[in-house]
Amino acid sequence: MKLPSHILAPAVLVAALTGSGIFPLAVAADWPSRPVRIIAPSTPGGAADTFGRILVDHLPDLLGGRFFVENRAGAGGLIGAQATAYAEPDGYTFVTSSVAYHAIAPAVSRNPGFHPLRDFTHIAYIGGPPNVFVVSPALRVRSLAELIELARRRPVEYVSPGVGTLGHLTAERLAHLANIQLEHVPYKGAPMAMTDLIAGTVGVGTMTWTSAVGQIRAGKVIPIALTSRTRVAEFPDLPTFSELGYGELVGNTWFGLSGPAGVPSDIVEKLNRAVIEVLRRDDVRQILARDAIETRPMTPGEFTAFMAREIDRWAPLAKRIGQAN
User: Fold this and answer.
1) pLDDT tens, 241-280?
2) Is 145 exposed, middle or buried (0-12, 13-18, 19+ CB in 10 A)?
3) Is residue 181 domain-shared with residue 124, that is, in the same domain?
4) Residue 307 half-sphere exposure, CB side, CA atoms within 13 Å?
5) Alpha-carbon gap, residue 105 to 14, rounded angstroms
6) How far apart are CA 96 and CA 279, in angstroms?
7) What residues make up the domain containing 218?
């Protein structure tokens, strides 16, 4: 996407100042000297908000200053992401970036207002929950093999939290790989989708582990496969897609921390190290383990490369689905 000149000019100026060494010295010497904003492109209680609040609760201990979450929901996360892309790259505005906001939503939007790589400084990987395929007991399916056998005989309806979510894309990729008939019934959010799944109105659901685990524990739905790299400790008999021969489906609904393009490199490095340290803290590890959230340390360069791979992986499929709907 070619950005307008009035957007490119400030970015070029910042890059020049940063490269000269002038900007980092002026900005980063006493950073943070005022409150740092982390934009969460979701409503309070959403995953982006939750991860943002974990960071603001712990970063002051490591970096000093004050950090706060600002919720900027809307347009599938594009509003909050765009606000960050247009912010000053002075180390005082960041966003909880994600596969949804940076890989999927820009691909299906006619005008997302930013480029997910050029217009951001990607700082630290946080992680996220895997997706899970669950079935209604009324479907009388107890494994992925049985679901595939059924869906080869006749179309099977499935629910997801919405068009373009990672749950939706994972199911469509499975349908292609296994040559089966899956028909999408989109919902606006996982709770409504889960209600109809429990009632048996629809037979299959695909959503994050966080959204489904409560009903799995209650026995209201049956999990048949996870997109995680390894099995979750709480359900050791639940296989992963990789074990079942579908390694292309390994992945999670991940989140990270990003800022506008041109954030001074010393702030980036300092913040990256602090986020990694937060994720290692015992109380945070307990929160992550409870919801099977997978995380791993990445340098800013590694996170940027990971972001690029995720865009290459999911954006083409998201675009095709968006054009078909």
Assistant:
1) 999 999 999 999 999 999 999 999 999 999 999 999 999 9
2) middle
3) no
4) 28
5) 27
6) 15
7) 131-249
